[in-house]
């Protein structure tokens, strides 16, 4: 599942088929192979180089900042990057040397005049492990935490983007499973701490009867 908000509809296809225009299905998650002596950092760097070898040309190549780590697990890694023309991209890479990638169709808009949270990507291909990942941008504020109800979620700072004297911080957030409703965030702005909400891709009222999706709120 590749979906993008506010930055335009996401383009999704395996990275190795970008030039051919192939519509091959995205790779399926598989159980990791036998444990390796390779450290997690070594795995991430090996995956980073493989992704660069696959995508570091053409329109979807990363800018000078390269690839930023979103999450890593046994056998798979997720990276975020920005293209030279300002589009946001995410890549999930497996040790089996297959990649699934997604880029927004249009460049990201500039940093607005007021603090704001914006959800860019959501789905099970935006987390390396068995989770649902979100990639979120925070303009002119720092996120301290995200919560689904009373549960505090895993949060990682991915990248800081500076433009015209303002800061946009990219975060990765993980949910245990697909959920509906809104996340609650605690943020820090120039004038102190604030509470904020971030809608998920599915509204609570849109769930079908009998759905086992949790509702955040």
Brief description of this entry?
With 217 residues, this protein is mainly beta. Helix content is 7%, strand content 44%. It has one helix and 14 strands; from the N terminus they run E-H-E-E-E-E-E-E-E-E-E-E-E-E-E.
Mean pLDDT: 85
Tell me the β content. Answer: 35-45%
Q: How far is the N terminus from the C terminus?
A: 23 Å
Q: What is the SS-derived class?
A: mainly beta
**Lateral arrangement of strands in the main beta sheet:** 1-5-4-3-2
Structural account:
- The chain has one helix at residues 40-55, and strands at 10-14, 68-73, 76-82, 88-94, 99-104, 116-123, 132-139, 142-148, 151-152, 154-163, 166-175, 180-189, 192-199, 215-216.
- The protein is mainly β.
- Strand 6 (116-123) and strand 7 form a beta hairpin.
- It is globular and about 40 Å long.
- Mean pLDDT is 85; it is low at 1-35.
Keywords:
disordered N terminus; 5-stranded antiparallel β-sheet; 217 residues
Ordered list of secondary-structure elements with their pairings:
Blueprint: E1 10-14, H1 40-55, E2 68-73, E3 76-82, E4 88-94, E5 99-104, E6 116-123, E7 132-139, E8 142-148, E9 151-152, E10 154-163, E11 166-175, E12 180-189, E13 192-199, E14 215-216
Parallel strand pairs: 12-14
Antiparallel strand pairs: 1-5, 2-3, 3-4, 4-5, 6-7, 7-11, 8-9, 8-12, 10-11, 12-13
